């Protein structure tokens, strides 16, 4: 029998020992998805940071706008790959497959979004997200002009940058904590 691997190098609290608001959120996610994504359990180790993390996550990923929920997930997958974050590529790749209704898109975006079957608009969006992730100090007016030529507004550009930046934080925490992707993610949205 194979021993189960730890989902984090830090302590993971028992559900029963978590503050009520955190436990309620985790139970709601479990009821919706059928399992508890490990990110919820790992971050519950630090309740105040859990609340702040998910408040900002939700503000970025669940709001209406000119970028679709699938496009927002593309940003996460492409930038998480650059940051070598296995957890986020696998978990958000699963969400991307479901939101895009395409079992191939997440793998294409994770490996090389420039060769993926996505629109020129989406490639411009990901070019900018990658620039923010790897060399934000080089962002210039020409980046804004390129995005605007593809129909992105100033608010959209802020959103793309914020998602890239937020998941830079998430990628680093996932790597430092040795957060393991749930096995369920690998099968989600594959048809």
TrEMBL record:
Oxidoreductase keyword on record: yes
An MF annotation (GO) of this entry: peroxidase activity
Record InterPro entries: AhpD-like (IPR029032), AhpD_core (IPR004675), CMD-like (IPR003779), Uncharacterised_peroxidase-rel (IPR010195)
Pfam families: CMD
Entry keywords, A to Z: Oxidoreductase, Peroxidase
SUPFAM superfamilies: AhpD-like
Domain of life per record: Bacteria
Annotated Carboxymuconolactone decarboxylase-like domain residues: 47-97
PANTHER family: CARBOXYMUCONOLACTONE DECARBOXYLASE-LIKE DOMAIN-CONTAINING PROTEIN, SI:CH211-175M2.5
NCBIfam families: ahpD_dom (TIGR00778), peroxid_rel (TIGR01926)
Protein name: Peroxidase-related enzyme
Organism annotation: Bradyrhizobium ottawaense
